[in-house]
Amino acid sequence: MITLKLNGKDHQLNVELSQKKPSLAKADT
User: Fold this and answer.
1) Contact 3, 14 (CB under 8 A)
2) Per DSSP, which regions of 1-29 are E strands?
3) Which residue has the higher pLDDT, 12 or 5?
């Protein structure tokens, strides 16, 4: 996600979302 690149702390939020939604995990990378 774009927020992952903008703010490091948002990375943790994305990780939590990725664990709930595998589709996001693929989008992040």
Assistant:
1) yes
2) none
3) 12
